[in-house]
Amino acid sequence: MAGLLRGRRVLVTGASAGIGAAVARSVVEAGAQVALLARDKDRLADLAAELGPAATSVTCDITDDDAVAAAVDEAARRLDGLDGVVNSAGLFGAGTLSDTDPAAWRAMFGVNVLGLLTVTRAAVPHLLRAGQGASVVNISSMSGRRVPNAESGVYSATKFAVHALGESLRLELAPQGIRVTTVAPGMVDTDIAARVPDSEYVERFRERLRTDGLPPSAVAAAVVHVLGTPPGVNVVEYAVMSVSQ
Predict the structure, then answer these.
(1) Of 36, 113, 176, 180, which one has the fewest beta carbons inside 10 Å?
(2) How many Å is the Cα radius of gyration of the chain?
(3) Each residue of 144-177: pLDDT tens digit?
């Protein structure tokens, strides 16, 4: 995909690890400039150094509305505009309703849903200035298409919300030339469950991520494909999973 995104300017949230970091690497390989946004300043700095002059990093907690607005504006200033936003920041939690704390539910909705909305709202004015072909890509999950089990119910609820918001944002922004795509991967071999409290379910889940999960680079390739489609084409949803899953 070398050169597919030449001249494009892309903001990637959750860029310090996992899918977000893989997307950042892939869009740079495809010729774009990238603004890396996440909370972990040191990991962002390391990735920016790896990617070289095509990358810049902006540290931000996407649950802080005021910080998000300032960070997105700063990213656009450094890149001299934005042509695309990839909402990759995500938080995973597991457990049944009876076994989990409401604070964990709020944290997941805060990052996975409200954070996505806040970043997108801040980015829209910049995308409008970019003209035709501007894109918003939201990383959801196959768990946003069906609930796999009771232990992932709240996480799935956040991803169902991402699907619904993707459709509503598409209806709102398409008349203005901004495309909106929901990318829904199945299991991906990342450390998304590393900080989740241990349980029998979580241990099984971590093992399945290792054995059946897609490499993050496969999801990143899907994002590059979506960003690189002709300006008049809107890929509404891109669902992808490993053959073994």
Answers:
(1) 176
(2) 17
(3) 999 999 999 999 999 999 999 999 999 999 999 9
Residue ranges of the chain whose pLDDT lies below 50: none
Adjacent-strand bridge partners of 237 = 182
- Which of 184, 154, 4 lies closest to 88 in space, CA to CA? 184
Name the residue among 181, 178, 187, 191 with its Cα closest to residue 224: 181
Active-site residue 238, yes or no?
Answer: no
Catalytic residue among 92, 109, 155, 201: 155
120 Cβ partners below 8 Å, 6+ apart? 85, 87, 136, 169
> What one-character DSSP code corresponds to residue 132?
T
Rounded to 10 deg, the angle between the 102-109 and 153-173 helix axes is 20
Number of neighbouring beta carbons within 10 Å of residue 60: 24
Tokens of 124: 């829209």
